[in-house]
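Support reply, case 0932

Customer input (verbatim):
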Amino acid sequence: MTTNSSWSLRARFLLATSLLTLVLCAVFAFAVHEFVELLEDELLHRTLVREMQQLKTELSENPRAAPPSSTGLSGFIVRTPEDLAVLPPELRSLSDGVHEDVLIRERTYFVAVDATTGVRLYLLLDTAHVEALEGSVVTVAVLVGLLALGLSAVIGFALSRAVMRPVTELASDVSRLDPSRRNERLGKRFSNREVGVIAAAFDDYMERLDRVLEREQAFTEDASHELRTPLAIIASAAELLLEEPELSQPGRERILRIRRAATQMQSLIEALLFLARGETDGPAQPCALDQIVREAVEVVATGAAVKSLRLNVEIEPVTVAGAAVMVACVVNNLLLNAVNFTQQGFIDVKLTPTELTVRDTGIGIPPKDLSRIFERRYRGAQSRGLGLGLYLVSRICQRLGWTIETSSAEGTGTIFRILLGARTAPL
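Our regenerated output:
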């Protein structure tokens, strides 16, 4: 069974302790109340029986003896009709014996009635002082209960700290784990059985995670070598072919396309491997963003010339803190998209110390696609790639602390604006 409670374990422990104390206090208060009631009834009953026996003894010795009249205790002796006339009406219908909670003139009495001596005897015991005493006892019980509740909260808080200390220490140790340091284990640090089970389970998970990371690192290293080598061969072969004097102009353009494709593929692979390895250790090295933009413009210039597109370039000297291969991937993707999706008109490339803007007069992006173009493997209706280019741009901008903004209208063109933020500096 799962629980969606947002309360912490310590809060639930304190709540359980307080509720238990509250229930015990309520049971205690109820028991005290019932005991006081029972004691009150027994005490008043015995007092009346004793006083009635004493009155009967006095009457046997002196038939004209008067009934008792003291604080809380009074009586009536009915010998004649005149005596009956002064008897409170509430007493006239009472039978012999002890009667509880008889209300006379808004006061409550215990009443004893006896007629065994030839006259009718009535003894009244006022319960007001007993009720006051009962109220005092209940008040004391309530105060004791509140004190117990407060003490339980204090003790519960102290116990919760003791109970939670191993859990807190485990959380602290987990937060200090360094992903770059393998084979760190927590199970041996905790002898507490419950927390030790959690730590052991976490160690088992870390072992499996280490194996996954080792396989991924091995794959990344192998892929880095196996993919870079053929691309370097293709680029070198293209350079050598371009030096052939007998090469025709159409052939030269085809080889230039091969070289551009190899360069873009190499940049893409470098960015993918960089992101996969998560290389963030150490301070970021500065790189010349203006130089990267110029090189990217040169790469797409041929493709733009084939379509008779006008390239308007305005570049200011700017350096950024980040890996050059990642920065180049961002610029190359934006410029390549601009050339691929623009059939006529122009492409504006503007670099300032605060932002990089790429604007084209291409086919534009439909509104339904505009909010999703940075999703991984999302392909619009007119997309020709695998849906990774703009996703990589977004990921790299996020890694570099940049913000990318997009505006577009179908048939009019698209504007990509990258706000370089505080991690840039003009040369």
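We compared this against your earlier run and they match. Two observations from our side: Confidence is low (pLDDT under 50) at residues 423-427. DSSP finds ten helices and 13 strands in the chain. Please reopen the case if you see a mismatch on your end.
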